[in-house]
Amino acid sequence: MKKISKNKGFTLLEILLVVGIIAILAGIVIIALNPSKQLKTVRDMQRKQAIGEINKALIQYFIANGRYPDMELAISTTIREICNTGSASATTTSVTGETCVSINSVNLSQLVPVYLAAIPVDPSGYIVASGLINTAYAAVGGTGYAIAKNSNNNVYVSAPKAELASIKVGSTAGVVGLGSNGF
Fold this sequence. Notes:
Blueprint: H1 12-33, H2 35-65, H3 71-74, E1 80-83, E2 142-149, E3 155-158, E4 168-172, E5 175-178
Antiparallel strand pairs: 1-2, 2-3, 3-4, 4-5
């Protein structure tokens, strides 16, 4: 005859201890990885790349034409948002159809498609103006990037919506340098 043995298994206490240990380890890993900061870092890198592309396109345009595009708006000491004309050389936004002038933004569509495939847009998308974001950089037809010149006539492109650090690129007819926030 076969001998009947007792069922072997884990007790409720053992299962609860293992689940508790797994939960604690998962919490530690999530805190260590900090996905929110990782996403912010990725978006800031995308912003840095986008303003670098805009800056290079401005330099190439300057070299080819001896001036910057849209002189009356782009090269002013007033910081203005770059108009989102999309991938077309146009004077209206690709979002609302309003003119770039009516939303008080700089039209750099002369750079498209020769110097840029499309006007870059901030990775966070369109943000309605709030107390945290200056209305100058939150126009519905805007890109989230700004342009201005300083008193030395150096042109600067910046990403005012940067989440972890200020991002700005400037040019003086081919000289590029990273700077601090502000113009």
